[in-house]
């Protein structure tokens, strides 16, 4: 099968490697996003997929728009186009170009969590499981007919970054099975149901701001679901305070959201329902620290609250 691979970030690399290593597939070329400024020097940096394609000896193109390489793609006449977090919208001409269609690996159990941040929203919404689904792309946002899926349980303390790293190689294996099934004629696509469909919208920096009136369990999911980006944060004495690791702690009686408690070496923050143990935090402009070490330096007063100025 003659394949063109389309992808950009780290999570797409295992899929490219899996397909390129399989004797049944001939990777004609790789499409990825153009080099972007990165780091303190803002020097152009190649995408992880571009780096992998060059290492594998594959032809790689980085067009600003896919239509810029339309004549070249039509001349290649691939049997399938494989898409993993590429970052471009596919027009009708491109969807209809390959014999077996454009096959996408999406990091959720469709139709739940269609959209650009499915892993993050699976954690934010408290899902107990997620997975990878392969589908044939159509003009909608992750609405195409599905092919195969593989399910995994979400770990109780797992962050979005950790879960994505675990799902990435699963996607590679699932894509190989999907392409093989399409080539053999043993795999049929199934239309998605609209029942239970949700949309995982793009996350913004402000999504990381903690509202201490919410329950401790929800805030804990916010910290895990937004790690590593955009990250959960609050304020203390008017400056930013990032929350890197937290844990729900038992609590009894009434609470004062945002109030800090030092209890036998543990730093606890009261919420709208329950307490949250702060494990690793980072004051603005400082290195991350164990919460107890931060407490010793900051010495919070009884009247001070997270997320607001001194009363």
Describe this structure in words.
This protein has a 7-stranded mixed β-sheet. A hairpin with a 4-residue loop joins strand 15 and strand 16. Helices cover 25% and strands 28% of the residues. It has 311 residues and is an alpha/beta fold.
Short account of what is shown:
This protein has about 300 residues and is α/β, with parallel strands linked by helices.
Q: Using the alpha-carbon principal axes, give the shape.
A: elongated
Work out the radius of gyration: 23 Å
Low-confidence stretches: none
- Structural class call reads alpha/beta
Order of helices and strands: EHEEEHEHEHEEHEEHEHEEEEEEH
Strand ordering within the main sheet: 5-2-1-6-7-9-10
- Largest β-sheet summary: 7 strands, mixed
The count of β-strands is 17
Oligomer: single chain
**Total helical elements:** 8
**Mean pLDDT over all positions:** 96
Helix content percent band: 10-25%
Distance between the termini: 67 Å
Strand content: 25-35%
Per-chain topology:
Layout: E1 2-7, H1 13-20, E2 26-31, E3 36-38, E4 43-45, H2 48-55, E5 60-61, H3 70-76, E6 80-84, H4 92-95, E7 102-106, E8 114-115, H5 118-124, E9 129-136, E10 146-153, H6 160-184, E11 199-200, H7 216-225, E12 232-236, E13 239-249, E14 260-263, E15 266-270, E16 275-283, E17 289-290, H8 291-298
Parallel strand pairs: 1-2, 1-6, 2-5, 6-7, 8-11
Antiparallel strand pairs: 3-4, 7-9, 9-10, 12-13, 13-16, 14-15, 15-16, 16-17
């Amino acid at each position: 099968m003659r394949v063109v691979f389309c992808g950009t970030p780290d999570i797409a690399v295992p899929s490219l490697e899996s397909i390129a290593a399989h004797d049944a597939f001939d990777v004609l070329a790789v499409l990825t996003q153009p080099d972007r400024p990165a780091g303190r020097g803002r020097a152009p940096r190649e995408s992880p997929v571009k780096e992998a394609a060059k290492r594998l000896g594959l032809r790689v193109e980085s067009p600003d728009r896919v239509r810029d390489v339309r004549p070249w793609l039509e001349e290649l006449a691939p049997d399938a186009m494989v898409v993993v977090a590429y970052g471009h919208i596919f027009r009708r001409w491109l969807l209809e170009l390959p014999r077996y269609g454009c096959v996408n690996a999406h990091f959720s159990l469709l139709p739940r969590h269609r959209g650009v941040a499915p892993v993050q929203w699976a954690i934010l919404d408290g899902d107990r499981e997620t997975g990878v689904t392969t589908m044939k792309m159509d003009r909608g946002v992750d609405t195409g007919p599905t092919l195969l899926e593989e399910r995994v349980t979400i770990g109780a303390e797992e962050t979005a970054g950790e879960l994505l790293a675990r799902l990435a190689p699963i996607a590679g294996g699932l894509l190989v099975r999907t392409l093989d099934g399409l080539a053999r004629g043993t795999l049929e696509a199934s239309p998605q149901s609209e029942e239970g469909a949700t949309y995982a919208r793009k996350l913004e920096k402000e999504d990381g701001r903690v509202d201490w009136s919410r329950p401790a369990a929800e805030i804990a999911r916010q910290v895990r679901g937004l790690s590593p980006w955009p990250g959960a944060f609050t304020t203390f004495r008017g400056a930013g305070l990032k929350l890197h690791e937290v844990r729900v702690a038992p609590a009894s009686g009434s609470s004062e959201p945002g109030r800090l408690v030092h209890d036998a070496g543990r730093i606890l923050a009261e919420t709208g329902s329950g307490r949250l143990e702060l494990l690793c935090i980072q004051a603005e402009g400082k290195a991350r620290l164990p919460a107890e070490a931060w407490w010793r330096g900051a010495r919070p007063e009884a009247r001070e609250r997270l997320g607001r100025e001194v009363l």
